[in-house]
Design a protein that fits this description.
about 90 residues; alpha+beta; three-stranded antiparallel β-sheet; globular
């Protein structure tokens, strides 16, 4: 099972619905969009993709017309982008 955890070296600052992230190791700044910012906020400790999706769906207002596969894909893409940029780490657990 894929598990995700925040990089503890990251510095964050909230700005409206966005989060500005600074990675001192890479000396890069990132701006998280609303979806990525929400995922970032709920990641305390280690999270599985399904846990993140469940929490994300709970924050949505209209879930009747929601396509969970699209939500899953968007959450996975956000996590992969954050992982590729060193903001989070992906661990494999059995």
């Amino acid at each position: 099972m894929e598990m995700y955890i925040k990089n503890v070296n990251i510095i964050e600052e909230k700005a409206d619905e966005y989060i500005v992230i600074y990675d001192p190791d890479a000396e890069k700044t990132h701006i998280l969009n609303e979806t990525a910012a929400y995922i970032w906020d709920i990641m305390e400790g280690t999270f599985a993709l399904d846990d993140i999706i469940s929490q994300f769906v709970l924050c949505l207002e209209d879930t009747e017309s929601l396509d969970l596969e699209i939500v899953r894909m968007e959450c996975r893409e956000s996590l992969e982008c954050m992982k590729d940029n060193g903001l989070i780490l992906k661990e494999c657990k059995e």
